Amino acid sequence: MDLNTIEEGKGDGKDEKSNVGEGGLGSKVKGVGSISNKDVFFRADKIDLKSLDIQLEKHLSRVWSRNLEQKPKEEWEIDLSKLDIRTVIARGTYGTVYKGVYDGQDVAVKLLDWGEDGIATTAETAALRTSFQQEVAVWHKLDHPNVTKFVGASMGTSNLKVPSKNPSGNHDSFPSRACCVIVEYLPGGTLKHFLIRNRRKKLAFKIVIQLALDLSRGLSYLHSKKIVHRDVKTENMLLDAHRTLKIADFGVARVEAQNPKDMTGETGTLGYMAPEVLDGKPYNRRCDVYSFGICLWEIYCCDMPYPNLSFVEVSSAVVRQSLRPEIPRCCPSSLANIMRKCWDGNAEKRPEMDEVVKLLEAIDTSKGGGMIPEDQANGCFCFAPARGP
After folding, report:
1. What is the dihedral sign for C-alpha 246, 153, 272, 356?
2. Residue 128 dihedral angles phi and psi, to the nearest 5°
3. C-alpha pair distances (Å), 96 with each of 85, 99, 110, 180, 216
4. pLDDT digit string (tens) for 115-125?
5. Which residues are catalytic?
6. pTM of the full structure
7. Has residue 204 got a pLDDT over 90?
8. What is the DSSP string of 329-380?
9. What are the φ/ψ torsions at residue 6 (nearest 5 degrees)?
10. How many CB atoms lie within 10 A of CB 228?
11. In order of start, what are the domains of the chain with their CATH numbers?
12. Where is the composition biased (Basic and acidic residues) (predicted)?
């Protein structure tokens, strides 16, 4: 067959469209007739290449637009290329916390990975990822000096390089299903570790009240935003270089339901959990107030609540026998009264956190009153024998 057998296209081709990209080169090209038959040749000088380029560009633009529509970028998503992970701070069940640098700022990077061990089911992994998104959704909107500053997060870290466990010092790629959340780096560590370091010499009363005020102000702010932390404990509080306390770890935080019956289930850490939570009953933000009362006792005493009881014993005694930590005799009544009000068995009788802030602000620290008397190097001897972690 020679070129003379080609059927010339009729008309100006204005109503004909190219299918480039949709199904290969289309059935018609401007200036050329049908090319559906594989044996048919066509003349290159009759093809409008400029028109084809325009059509191809439009098609690719539509494809890119669809991809963007399918996966919109969240306002909290970070640019992983700006993140440099340095050293491990802590390891947990589902992930590791690293110290790193993001866009020139020192940060803590919480890397969470689920399912790599082959134990977690698909449903469990999905639930954990949902919990992570919940944490991010709560955290990125918060702005308060006593709440850890959120920097950003990522739902997939396939391009992220993390320090390897092997001695060669090379970096490994983290699994693509992993998630990471980035927050400001606080060099003071957790409040829990700070209290452990001071369990023998105790804290000056001014420091006790300062830490208590930081925590109460942070919780009051969260409650004003209708957020219930649900896991208030000294391990979830961090200290900066100036010993300012900041609330962290919003893994189980949630927006408070209008109907308390919508908030049930054991969520939190034993020893800090309110009786209604332990008992599986409906609860509200006042479960955080109860936990604050336990933390306040812990800050004052630099001791562990219920150090000699098992989990089962604590759970039963808190609910059935109104068990609470023993308040030392040397504790000022103004502070002891706040503890008792906060951990009242009746949630409705507990004060709101903004009220707790006012009560703490009213305490006079100029004359001491803590476990360390002004004129005495040795601490209070209310506890015998010495206890602590």
Report:
1. positive
2. -70, -40
3. 12, 10, 6, 10, 28
4. 555 556 777 77
5. 231
6. 0.71
7. yes
8. TTS-HHHHHHHHHHT-SSGGGSPPHHHHHHHHHT---TT--SSS-TT-SS--
9. -70, 135
10. 24
11. 74-163+174-185 (3.30.200.20), 186-388 (1.10.510.10)
12. 7-19
